[in-house]
Specification:
It is a single chain. The protein has 2 domains: 7-174, Ribosomal Protein S5, domain 2; 177-319, Alpha-Beta Plaits (2-Layer Sandwich). The longest helix is centred in the middle third of the chain and has 20 residues, at 207-226. The strands form 3 sheets. Strands 1, 4, 5, 6, 7, 8, 9 and 14 form an 8-stranded mixed sheet that branches. α1 (71-87) packs parallel to α2 and α5 packs antiparallel against α6 (230-249). The mean pLDDT is 95. With 331 residues, the protein is α+β, with helices and mostly antiparallel strands. It has 8 helices and 14 strands. Helices cover 35% and strands 27% of the residues. Bound molecules: ligand DP6. Ligand DP6 binds next to α2 and α4.
Length: 331
């Protein structure tokens, strides 16, 4: 193994799934129950510097300048333990991470965080790994992080082993000018994390139906993206989000992530598309915030309409983005 350089900085983008990941066939390896599809978000990213240091007695972590000593540190340590074991180093690391999107907006940062951490940690070990291997390693920290390694429009193949569960790009960001307009319905930290949620997915009687039909939704969404067919894309993206939330709501214990305003926005978005012919559809992750995916030509109109639904709404906006990249290397 090469010893130098010891420090590297990497950046990775958040992503929004169009066919969702919910539930694992193997929790420890984070092997998902179904393959998923997403778009990287150019304007929401995490930048992470990892310095492997012989003098450190344990790993340290700062997030946006503040020292982390809680479950975030624990999760980063576990990920670094996995990398240490794999690449046979006993050194500890100093990790500094910043998000360019506001923390505490309920917008998941684990995908961009673990993709950037993995890319920086490996580069700082002097490793130049193929994208596929980086994706499998990022997956071990957070499943959706596997999808933040490749660029643009991405498919995560569920696979059946560590090596075969990875994400790859099937279209570059410039292939289709989709915009994600995120309506921040609540800034509250989610009470049930995605990790805990994945463990309850199998308790829903609806999960087998969701899983057995996911491959067909994935096929349709991928083909709609390739042919830039918004109508076909929109109906399956909304169906897939609804199905995941149906599983969540019928799990034990049930998980209710929607807020009344989330539901109002979902209904409005459907009206704008089906009656008023705006190219927009909705999708929601494990929280109440609504991702309104729209054609670039309708993005300003969609933002204005969201604001007029509720003046209280904060709105984030992003186009399709690239993959994880190393920004600098230092000895
Ligand atoms: C609802 O990747 O956040 O956003 O592997 O436990 O970190 P962990 O889970 P995570 O799960 C994402 C769930 C989702 C759907 C999706 O992004 O596909």
């Amino acid at each position: 193994m090469v010893d130098e350089p010891q420090t590297a900085t990497a950046r990775a983008h958040s992503n929004i799934a169009f066919v969702k990941y919910w539930g694992n066939r193997d929790h420890r390896l984070r092997l998902p129950a179904n393959s998923s599809i997403s778009m990287n978000l150019a304007d929401l990213h995490t930048t992470t510097t990892v310095a492997w240091d012989d003098d450190l007695k344990h790993d340290t972590l700062t997030i946006n300048g503040a020292i982390a000593a809680d479950s975030a540190l624990e999760r980063v340590r576990n990920h670094l333990d996995m990398l240490r074991a794999r690449f046979k180093t006993s050194r500890y690391a100093r990790v500094r991470s910043t998000n360019n999107f506001p923390m505490g907006t309920g917008i998941a940062s684990s995908a961009s965080a673990f993709a950037a951490l993995t890319a920086a940690a490996c580069a700082a070990l002097g490793l130049e790994l193929p994208e596929r291997e980086l994706s499998t390693l990022a997956r071990r920290g957070s499943g959706s992080a596997a999808r933040s390694i490749p660029s643009g429009y991405v498919e995560w193949h569920a696979g059946d082993s560590h090596e075969t569960s990875f994400a790859e790009s099937f279209a570059p960001p410039e292939h289709w000018d989709l915009i994600d307009i995120i309506a921040i319905v609540s800034r509250a930290h989610k009470r049930t994390s995605s990790s805990a949620g994945h463990e309850t997915a199998d308790s829903s009687v609806l999960q087998p139906a969701r899983i057995s039909s996911a491959a067909e939704r994935l096929r349709v969404v991928k083909s709609a993206i390739m042919s830039r067919d918004f109508e076909q894309f929109a109906s399956v993206v909304e169906e897939d989000s609804n199905l995941m939330h149906a599983v969540m709501m019928t799990s034990d214990p049930p998980l209710f992530y929607w807020a009344p305003l989330s539901f109002a926005i979902m209904k409005a978005v459907r009206y704008w598309r089906t009656i008023e012919k705006l190219q927009v559809c909705y999708t929601l992750d494990a929280g109440p915030n609504v991702h309104c995916i729209c054609a670039a030509s309708d993005a300003n109109e969609v933002s204005a309409r969201l604001r007029s639904l509720s003046g209280e709404l904060d709105i984030l906006r992003s186009s399709a983005g690239g993959g994880a990249c190393v920004l600098s290397l230092r000895d």
